[in-house]
């Protein structure tokens, strides 16, 4: 029996519904609130009297110790990163010193900019900020793409002391808006809240955007970052800001009482168990949010809940129009729906009302994301966080030792500053803003891509300077989807109505929108009729019958070209390289699966493969070939090792299910690449943590009791050839051999690759 009555009820219902299936609650952990270490009283801070009175009205009589440390560092004009638990007052930690400076030292406005990852989150925070208004000295204004034109002009001509916005607005505004340029020129403080969001490709964008901010400012501003869940705050902030940073660390716990629950789905489909768990919560009148890590899985789960259990639920994900997402948020906040199935779009603190529960349909990509998502429940009343463990390798890894899930460390956040596609965007944007730049004065990451931009007719060299070719440069910026990614955008169009339903970014669009694929939108199925990569358009239509299946692609990936950036021999003698690679993705067929069980109904080939080439970063490995395994045995071993390393990277690097992809060759060559165009930094982290990742991969495979491979050890739902040519036992043989003795690295990765690539 478990301590919490609701947990007991859920456990009993699941066991009763699915007897002898292994479905059950397997672990309960209660997290109780406590107060961070106290600091000085408000009267000791020399704050303006008006600000002190506002704090007293809000019930704040004393700062926490970490808040006071941040207060002192920021007043001392030091770049600062603040990490502390959810709901412990990070906002006051950076806001109070800024308010004090604005009040006592009068200068032209704005004095500070506070940036949030999304417009919705910025607007949610506005009400909190306006409590600190001290008319006419301290004021706040929001300036983003949703601000009416007349209001923008009013703010631009007479700005308040603090502007609230988002990085996307600065990115475009520095080019096209004199108001934004003026805001950046004047601001002495530049705050990036929710800093953990800026990892991967988005973080690479922020790195370059900060360079443009510094080049625009009259005086370099104080950079401030804040986050509740980040594993390497100082290192990460210094990479983003390109400046030395002081770290202020508060307590890691969050405010509020929450019960964390692990649920095993046993031998059943994860989605069946998640759906029934949501049904239980709905029957009890609880309001909840379900997190998944794929847009189409969000749609699939929503469809199951609606059609099988008649649950009043909606899907919230990227690719939906902004007004649709806002409508869903209002319905959830007002209790008009039971809950939402969401991707990371609701991971941040957007006000969606008081939630009773958070349901993780699978362990999130990293423990930091788990903490962030768990923080959505229990903010105003007791909350529950249910995580459903399936039969994939990492879920089984944690099911064996549940306490290991909650005691794991937060992995470091990473970016790839040298992502050429990102660097191109920001150099072009900077040139459109400044109209020329001296080549020897710009960062090396920008200098490295000048020749490519010249060849593409986007910039031109004039002596020691480079200038934009305006029409081509503006066209490049217009094709970018803000700072969210680097791939070209594919429109998804209803072939009957002509309406654009949603958008998807390449290369992932190729894996979801090939002809014959079932694309789910707002829980309803559509059949993909065609995909035109030239026009970047996919035509879809509603089927004339009820559909109870979903699709997965059969595809191959091969390395077209590569350029080694770093190389090392591992402690076990394996040659490892970090490289820039050009990949060719080819979708060749489709697997049709049952919506409720996940079982394969049938497979079929496409009439003509659809191909797409792109550049990214990758880890290249060269494992020894063992003659006793034979050619087929080596192919099975290396393909299994590739799968196991990608799974293990979820533990060691905090990668998501689809953040990394892989290719293996019978010759011992393995390529594990960043799925994002240009690179996200994850494969570089895996390059550094290779030995640790090999150990986790070996543990996962060694502890599985299957004969020679199953979903609990080496099978992957994203395998391009439907989990063929795999051997757990042969993979264990190879990893054990190199772990026990020193492997002899006979060649560099990919030098002597041979055989058909497997993905």
Automatic annotation (TrEMBL):
Keywords: ATP-binding, Helicase, Hydrolase, Nucleotide-binding. Gene3D superfamilies: P-loop containing nucleotide triphosphate hydrolases. One of its GO terms (molecular function) is 3'-5' DNA helicase activity. The keyword Hydrolase applies. It holds the Pfam family Helicase_C. Residues 272-423 form the Helicase C-terminal domain. It comes from the Archaea. SMART domains: DEXDc (SM00487), HELICc (SM00490). This is DEAD/DEAH box helicase domain protein. It comes from Desulfurococcus amylolyticus DSM 16532.
């Amino acid at each position: 029996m478990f301590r919490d009555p609701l947990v007991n009820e859920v456990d009993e219902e699941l066991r009763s519904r699915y007897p002898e299936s292994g479905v059950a609650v397997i672990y309960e952990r209660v997290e109780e609130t406590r107060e961070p270490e106290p600091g000085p009283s408000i009267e000791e801070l020399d704050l303006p009297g008006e600000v002190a009175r506002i704090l007293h009205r809000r019930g704040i009589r004393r700062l926490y110790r970490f808040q006071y440390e941040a207060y002192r560092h920021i007043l001392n004009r030091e770049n600062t990163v603040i990490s502390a638990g959810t709901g412990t007052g990070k906002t006051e930690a950076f806001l109070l010193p800024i308010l004090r400076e604005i009040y006592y030292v009068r200068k032209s406005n704005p004095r500070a900019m506070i940036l949030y990852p999304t417009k919705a989150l910025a607007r949610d925070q506005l009400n909190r900020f306006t409590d600190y208004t001290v008319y006419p000295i301290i004021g706040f204004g929001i300036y983003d793409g949703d601000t009416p034109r007349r209001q923008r002009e009013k703010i631009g001509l007479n700005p308040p002391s603090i502007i609230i916005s988002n990085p996307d607005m600065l990115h475009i505004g520095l080019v096209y808006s004199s108001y934004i340029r003026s805001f950046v020129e004047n601001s002495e403080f530049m705050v990036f809240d929710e800093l953990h969001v800026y990892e991967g490709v988005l973080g690479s964008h922020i790195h370059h955007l900060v360079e443009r901010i510094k080049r625009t400012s009259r005086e370099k501003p104080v950079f401030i970052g804040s986050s509740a869940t980040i594993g390497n705050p100082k290192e990460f902030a210094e990479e983003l800001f390109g400046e030395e940073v002081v770290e202020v660390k508060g307590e890691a716990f969050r405010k509020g009482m929450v019960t964390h629950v692990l649920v095993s789905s046993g031998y059943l489909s994860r989605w069946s168990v998640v759906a029934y768990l949501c049904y239980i919560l709905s029957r009890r009148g609880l309001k909840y949010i379900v997190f998944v890590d794929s847009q189409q899985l969000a749609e699939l789960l929503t469809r199951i809940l609606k059609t099988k259990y008649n649950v009043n639920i909606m899907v919230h994900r990227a690719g939906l129009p902004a007004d649709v997402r806002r409508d869903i948020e209002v319905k959830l906040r007002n209790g008009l729906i039971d809950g939402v199935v969401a991707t990371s779009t609701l991971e941040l603190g957007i006000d969606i009302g008081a939630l009773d529960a958070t349901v993780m349909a699978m362990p999130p990509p990293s423990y930091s994301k788990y903490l962030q998502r768990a923080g959505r429940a229990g903010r105003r009343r007791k909350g529950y966080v249910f995580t459903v463990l399936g039969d994939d390798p990492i879920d089984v890894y944690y099911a064996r030792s549940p306490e290991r899930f909650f005691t794991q460390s937060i992995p470091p956040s990473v970016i790839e500053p040298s992502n050429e596609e990102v660097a191109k965007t920001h150099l072009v944007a900077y040139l459109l803003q400044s109209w020329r730049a001296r080549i020897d004065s710009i960062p090396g990451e920008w200098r490295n891509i000048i020749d490519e931009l010249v060849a593409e007719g986007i910039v031109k060299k004039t002596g020691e300077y480079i200038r934009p070719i305006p029409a081509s440069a503006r066209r490049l910026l217009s094709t970018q989807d803000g700072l969210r990614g680097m791939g070209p955008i594919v429109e998804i169009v209803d072939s009957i109505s002509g309406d654009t339903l949603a958008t998807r970014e390449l290369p992932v669009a190729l894996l979801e929108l090939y002809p014959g694929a079932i694309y789910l939108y707002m829980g309803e199925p559509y059949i993909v009729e065609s995909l035109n990569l030239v026009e970047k358009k996919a035509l879809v239509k509603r089927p004339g019958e009820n559909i109870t299946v979903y699709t997965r692609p059969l595809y191959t990936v091969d390395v077209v070209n590569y350029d080694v950036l770093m190389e090392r021999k591992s402690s076990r003698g394996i040659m490892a390289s970090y490289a820039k690679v050009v990949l060719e993705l080819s979708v060749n067929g489709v697997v049709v699966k049952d919506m409720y069980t996940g079982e394969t109904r049938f497979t079929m080939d496409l009439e003509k493969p659809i191909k797409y080439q792109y550049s990214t970063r990758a880890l290249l490995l060269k494992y020894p070939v063992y003659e006793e395994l034979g050619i087929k045995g080596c192919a099975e071993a290396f393909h299994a090792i590739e799968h196991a390393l990608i799974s293990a990277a979820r533990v060691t690097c905090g990668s998501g299910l689809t953040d990394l992809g892989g290719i293996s060759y019978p010759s011992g060559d393995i390529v594990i690449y960043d799925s994002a165009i240009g690179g996200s930094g994850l494969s570089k982290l895996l390059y550094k943590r290779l030995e640790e990742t090999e150990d986790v991969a070996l543990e996962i495979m060694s502890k599985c009791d299957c004969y020679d491979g199953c979903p609990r050890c080496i099978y992957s739902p994203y395998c391009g050839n439907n989990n063929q040519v795999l051997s757990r036992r042969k993979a264990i043989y190879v990893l054990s051999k190199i772990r026990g003795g020193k492997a002899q690295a006979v060649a560099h990765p990919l030098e002597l690759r041979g055989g058909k690539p497997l993905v």
